[in-house]
Amino acid sequence: MDWEALRREARQLENEIDKRLVAFSKLGSSHRHKDNHPAGAAKRSEGEFDAMALELQQLLIKLSGVNDEMADIANRREPPDASVVHTLTRHRDILSDYHQEFSKTKSNIRITR
After folding, report:
1. Is the peptide bond before 79 cis (omega within 30 degrees of 0)?
2. Residues 67 and 11: beta-carbon distance below 8 Å
3. Which residues have a Cβ under 8 Å from the Cβ of 56 and sit 6 or more positions away?
4. What digits encode the pLDDT tens for the residues 38-70?
């Protein structure tokens, strides 16, 4: 893939991860209030949590792979292109932020289980 195609894919993955992190956080919020729900609903919520956590992990891995491919392209450019380096750094920062948010939310949900 070329740089632009990878950049588009990274943005699409980032948008998808962002939406799913919001839903994951909402699930965590509803999970904290599970005392108000019957046992069946709590089990369903735990199943949803596991499924969403797995989906998010897979998306984060995929985004990491896209970032690695972008880095390969950036490293082959001679001379280095400052805008490419800046864009790659920004995508890596976004990935790092998503990893932190995912880990924090997952940890908070597990504490309340």
Report:
1. yes
2. no
3. 17, 20, 21, 24, 102
4. 555 555 567 888 899 999 999 999 999 999 999
Label residue 58 left, alpha or beta by phi (over 0 means left) and psi (-120 to 50 means alpha): alpha
Per-residue three-class SS string for 5-60: HHHHHHHHHHHHHHHHHHHHHHHHHHHHCHHHCCHHHHHHHHHHHHHHHHHHHHHH
The structure's pTM equals: 0.85
Buried-state track 42-55, b at ≥16 Cβ within 10 A, e below 16: eeebeeebeebbee
* 108 — pLDDT class (breaks 50, 70, 90): confident
> Under DSSP, is residue 1 helix (H, G, I), strand (E, B) or coil?
coil
Spatial CA neighbour of 66 closest among 84, 92, 85: 92
Nearest residue to 101 (alpha-carbon basis) of 51, 42, 28: 28
- Dist CA 56 CA 54 (whole Å): 5
